[in-house]
Please model this.
Amino acid sequence: MNAPRRALVLIDVQQEYFDGPLDIQYPSRDESLANILRALDVAAQADMPVVAVRHEYPEGAPVFAAGSAGWENHPEVERRIGSTTKRVAKNHSDIFTSTGLAEWFRENEIDTLTLVGYMTNNCVLATSVAAEPLGLTIEVLSDATGAVHLANEAGTASARQVHETLMALLHSNWAAVATTEAWASAATDDARLVKSDLVTSATQGRAAWEQL
Model:
């Protein structure tokens, strides 16, 4: 199997997720941020391309308004990403719509995207699904992403429940899910992370529930 041609993709590591109604609640913001910074260090050591995506709405929007404090990247991330980082603004949940990134990945012969950032239950999920018809392999770092508590007319779910459920869901079909440490080892060795598949996940899931 050929070695993966990776890019590290930072999705919306912006201040909106550290101060306000979208505060990341699981894993803790401190933990996920530390692992995002660790992934940046690994990418730098491996000479891996880095893409920094930032959500952006027009001035005056309640969140992610261009130029607002919440729109800014977290300062620790901003200090780490340099002039070689590909910077992109988006206004949809996935990173591909109206950004030109799919074409940029093809032009740079990148076939594997490692996703870190926020939120698990929105942009990480949407990007993982949208990558499938583009033929891109997705990796998601479970401890360098995060979710929020959810409640609406359809029900309620804790951030931990949301995050852990979506990690299992993604690993069953759309992405190889791993810790930052496991990914760092794979990136250093130019090795691919292995994901499960829907049939295997369903079979193992049935067996697990029958034992309860």
